[in-house]
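Entry 14. Structure prediction run on the chain below.
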Amino acid sequence: MSDGIGKLDVIVIGAGLSGLASALLAVEAGKTVRVLEAHAKPGGRIRSVFDERTNAFVADLGPSWVWPAFQPVIGRWLEKLGLETFAQFDAGEAVLDYGPDQPAQTALIPGQEGNERVVGGSQALVDAMVSKLPQGMVLTSTPATAVQVMDAGVLVGAGNAVLTAGQVIVALPPRLALSSIDWKSALPGGLQDALGSMPTWMAPHAKVAVLYDRPFWREAGLSGRIASRAGPLVEAHDHCGSEGEPAALWGFIGLSPEARAALGDELEVHIRAQLKRCFGEAIPEPLAVHVEDWAKNRFVASPGDLSGPITHPDVGPEALREVYFDGRLCFAGAETAHQSPGLIEGAFDAAERVVLSLQIATK
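Output returned:
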C-alpha cells in the first residue's frame, strides 16, 4: 500500500538528535523529506521532565552535558539553533557515600572540565530543530518496519503504508537498526556484524531527577555531587536551572536492569533513603522523583544491550560510516560517529557526515 506522498528524496528513520539534524540539513539542501519516529514525540533519547507549574522543562533524563570548548561540532549547532549554554555547577565539596553502615563524608573531588548544559535543557535542541522543519514532516508513532532497495528507489514500510525515496538515512542506534527493521535487501555481512556489536549508549542505564523547592546542598556549601559505592545512585550532580532554579539533583542508578526490575516501586524508597543518608535526615522532602529506566524502552534497548557490560561505546568500525547500495543507504545513529559516539556531539557529527556521504548537502 502506498501512502500517497509519492517518491521522496530522503526518508530519515528515527527522530532523535541525529535524525532531526540529518532532516534539517537535507531540507536546507532543497530535498523532500519525511522522518519516521516510533515514539509518540520526537527526541529519541532526549527525555526531559516538563513542569506544568512553571510551563518549562526542568530536568533531563537522557543526555544532558555538552563540552563546547572541546566540541566544535556542538559550537556550530548551538549557533545555528540560536541556543546558549551554562556551566555545570560544581562549587563545593562532594558527598562520599559508603553505605548505610558508615557515615557519609565530604571531600573535594575532581570535576569534568568544560561540561555545560543547554539553557532550556536538552529538549531545547529538539524543539529548535523541529521548529525549523516543515509542519507534518516528522511522523510520530510511526516506526519503520521494513526496508527494501529497488531499482526505482528505496521502499520503507511503516505500518500499513510504504514510502519510497531515493535515499534513506537510518538514524537509530545500530543494534536497534539491525533488530527492529526487516531488511528485505540483505545487508553485507561486515555491516551486520558492525551493527550488532555496537553498544547503545544509555540502553542498560537508568537515570533519576529529584526536584526540590530549593537547592539546600548549595546552602550548605556542597556541590550536589555524590560518589557512592552503595547506591542506588552511584553518581549524582547538581541539576538546577541556569539561574539556580528550579532546584534538582540528577544522577545514574548503578543497579543492573534485573535488580531495578526486582525492586519495582521500592527503588524510589531506596533513592530517598540514600539522599537522606548523604545530606542528613533534616533535608526537605522531594517535590518529585522521576526515574527513566532506558532498559525498559523497546525503541532504545535491544536484547544485546541488556546482556553485556554497562560501558560507553568506543568509536565503532568504519562499516558503520560507509554508504551502501550505490549511495542509497547510510546509518546515522549517534553511535556511528567518528567522535564522541553516543553523545550529543556524536549525534550531530553523524548527521553532518551522512549528508556529505550521500551528497545531499547544499552545493
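The domain at 48-121+204-296 is CATH 3.90.660.10 (Polyamine Oxidase; Chain A, domain 2).
Filed with the rest of this week's runs.
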